[in-house]
Amino acid sequence: MAGEFKRDQNYITTRITADGRDGYPVEPGRYRLVIARACPWANRAAIVRRLLGLEDVLSMGIAGPVHDERSWSFDLDPGGKDPVLGIERLQEAFFKRDPEYPRGITVPAIVDIPTGRVVTNDFAQITLDLETEWTAHHREGAPDLCPERLRDEIDEVAVKVFGVNNGVYKCGFASTQEAYEQAYRELWERLDWFEDRLKSQRYLVGDTITEADVRLFPSLARFDAVYHGHFKCNRQKLIEMPALWAYTRDLFQTPGFGDTIDFGQIKEHYYVVHRVVNPSGIVPLGPDVSGWLTPHGREQLGGRPFGDGTPPGPPPPAERVPDITSRG
C-alpha cells in the first residue's frame, strides 16, 4: 500500500552459541551488549540480561537517546566514547565487521570486544540465545523465560506481540491517510486481543514471566509517553485499558523490568530524532508517571513471576536509571 511503513528486518544473523557453531562461542567477558534506553527492541535485551543475572559475564554499553543519520553514539560516556570498546559511534563496530555495511545501525547489538566487530544485531534472536545458549552462566535462581513445553505458544503469541511492537511505528511513519488508518485498525485489533486475554491470566503464556512478556512490555511502557500522541495511536491511553494497564504496572514493579526504563531518555529520543513527525523537536513534559507504582491487583489471578526461581538483585550502580519519582 502506498505510504505504508515497512521495517527493514535484514539483520546480521551470526549467533553466539554454546558450541560456537558460527565462530563465536559463549565466553564470559568476551562480548559487549550495546543498547539505548530509548529503544524498545534494545530494552528487551536489557531486561533478559537482568533477569538471567548475566551482568558479570556480558558487559553492557549504553548509547545516548539522540542520534543522527549515521549512528547511535556514546555521548553519555566521559569523552563521548564507550569505555570498553573505545568508540564514539556504534557505526564503527559495524564497519569493522563490514566496511561497506549498507543497512541501518541498530541496537541492540553485541560486539566482540577483542576485534571490535559487531557480531549480531538480530534483536529477536539475541534474547532467545541469552535464554538458551548462555545457561551455563545464568545466575542461581534465574527464571526459565522460554520453557520447552511452552515454546510453540510463545511463538504464536509473539506474532501478535510484533503486531504491537511494529504496529505503533506503522501508524507513526505512515505517509498517507489510507496507510495510517489501516495500521491504526490493525494495532488496536491486537491491543484489544491482549486486553481480553489478560483479563483472566496474569501473564501472556503460562503462569510465569516468559519471553512473550519481555517482548510486549517495552511497547506498553512507551505507549502513553510516546506512541499515543507522537505516533497518533490515540484511540485510548494505556491507563484507560484496565487489564493492560494493570499488567504493565505489574511487570514494571517486578525487578528487571521497571529498573530498565528511563522515561526521560525515551521521550527525548522520539520527539527529538523524529523531526518528520515532530518538526519542532519540543519534548513534552508529561505524562505524569506517578501512577506506575500504584497497586495493580494482579496477584489475585495467581501466577508466580519467576516460577521456581528468584528475583534478580539490584542493577549495578552504573546501570541504574532515575528513580520513578524523578522521571518524566
UniProtKB/TrEMBL annotation:
Pfam families xref list: GST_C_2, GST_N_2
Region (Disordered): 293-328
InterPro entries: Glutathione-S-Trfase_C-like, Glutathione-S-Trfase_C_sf, Glutathione_S-Trfase, Glutathione_S-Trfase_N, GST_Omega-like_C, GST_Omega/GSH, Thioredoxin-like_sf
Residue ranges constituting the GST C-terminal domain according to the UniProt record: 121-280
Domain of life according to the entry: Bacteria
Protein's UniProt name: Glutathione S-transferase
